[in-house]
Specification:
Elements (H helix, E strand, L loop, with lengths): L16 E6 L10 E13 L2 E7 L6 E3 L5 H7 L7 E6 L20 E13 L7 E2 L9 E3 L7 E3 L10 E7 L10 E10 L4 E5 H4 L3 E4 L9 H7 L7 E6 L21 E11 L3
Antiparallel strand pairs: 1-5, 2-3, 2-4, 2-6, 5-6, 7-10, 8-9, 10-14, 11-12, 11-13, 11-15, 14-15
C-alpha cells in the first residue's frame, strides 16, 4: 500500500504535473502499449483530498486503449519498472463536466501514483507451438500473426457442454485461481457466426482475476482457462449455462439459448499484489 500524505494546503492547480519517483529499467511505453500496473488514486478538490482507489491491496489492473489525456501524457515514454506521480487537473481528466458515476466533479483534480509492472503491445498474441486449428465438431480457426483470429466452417451441431481446445500450447506456467490474467480474445455467437466482442478491436488486452468471487468473467472462462499455460491460445465453446445464462446479454445480441465461441490468447498471469 502506497500512502500519500501531506497534500499541500494550497488549492490544487490547473497544471498537469508529472514526476518520476522511481526510474524503471524496462522498455519505454509507447501509445500502442497497454500496461499492467498498480496504482493509488486520490481526489484532490480545493484544500481537501481523499483516497478513492488502491490496487496494491488486491490485484494489478490493465491500463490501455483510450486513456485520460493526462494519464497518457504521464505514462508514454516512461520505462517499465517506474513509479510515476501524476497530478491531473480537470482539463486533462474528465473536463468541466466530470463524471458523476465516479463522483468526479468539474473541479476534481486526480492524483495518481502508478507502478508500471509490465507492458503489452496491442498486437501481442499467443507465443507457443501450434497444435490445432480447430475443426471437427468445432469451428475452424485461422490467424495472421498480430491480428485477431477468425472463425469459419461452424458445424451445424452445437456442442451441448463446455468444450476447451488448446490451439497453441504456451511454454509458461499453468494458470491458477486468484491470478490476474492478461488476455486477448475474440468472441463469436455460434448462431450468427459473427463477432460480438474482441479485445483486438478495443486497442488493449483484457485483464481479469481467474476464479474470483464474485466472478469477473463468465463461468466458462473460469472453468476453461484454469490450468492452461501462459503463451497458449485456447478455443472455448461455451453453452448458455456457462455463459450469460437464460437471460442472455441483449446489448451484445446474445440470446438465452446462444452458445458462444471464444479464442483466448493468454499473454501473462500475475500473482495477486
Amino acid at each position: 500500500h502506497r500512502d500519500l500524505h501531506s497534500f499541500p494546503t494550497r488549492r490544487s492547480s490547473d497544471l498537469l504535473e508529472v514526476k518520476t519517483l522511481i526510474e524503471g529499467t524496462g522498455t519505454a511505453l509507447t501509445k500502442t502499449d497497454a500496461l499492467a500496473a498498480n496504482f493509488v488514486l486520490y481526489f484532490w478538490s480545493g484544500t481537501s483530498s481523499s483516497l478513492k482507489a488502491n490496487t496494491f491491496t488486491s490485484n494489478p489492473t490493465v491500463i490501455g486503449g483510450t486513456m485520460l489525456p493526462g494519464l497518457e501524457t504521464a505514462l508514454i515514454g516512461k520505462k517499465v519498472g517506474s513509479r510515476v506521480l501524476a497530478v491531473i487537473p480537470p482539463a486533462d481528466g474528465y473536463g468541466t463536466t466530470g463524471d458523476s458515476n465516479l463522483g468526479i466533479t468539474g473541479s476534481t483534480t486526480l492524483v495518481f501514483v502508478i507502478d508500471v509492472l509490465k507492458s503489452y503491445s496491442d498486437t501481442a498474441s499467443a507465443s507457443g507451438t501450434q497444435v490445432s486449428n480447430g475443426g471437427g465438431s468445432l469451428p475452424a480457426v485461422s490467424a495472421k500473426a498480430g491480428s485477431a483470429p477468425t472463425l469459419s466452417a461452424f458445424p451445424k451441431t452445437v456442442p451441448s457442454g463446455l468444450v476447451t481446445k488448446t490451439l497453441i500450447k504456451g511454454t509458461g506456467p499453468a494458470i491458477v485461481k486468484g491470478e490476474y490474467i492478461i488476455a486477448q480474445y475474440t468472441g463469436y455467437i455460434w448462431r450468427t457466426q459473427k463477432v460480438f466482442g474482441s479485445s483486438w478491436s478495443s486497442g488493449s488486452p483484457f485483464g481479469f482475476v481467474i476464479g474470483a468471487s464474485p466472478e469477473q468473467v463468465i463461468p466458462g472462462w473460469d472453468k476453461g482457462l484454469e490450468g492452461q499455460t501462459v503463451g497458449s491460445r485456447v478455443l472455448l465453446s461455451i453453452p448458455p449455462a456457462d455463459g450469460y445464462g437464460s437471460a442472455g446479454e441483449s446489448q451484445a445480441g446474445i440470446k438465452g439459448t446462444d452458445t458462444l465461441v471464444f479464442v483466448v490468447d493468454i499473454l501473462d498471469a500475475l500473482k495477486p499484489s
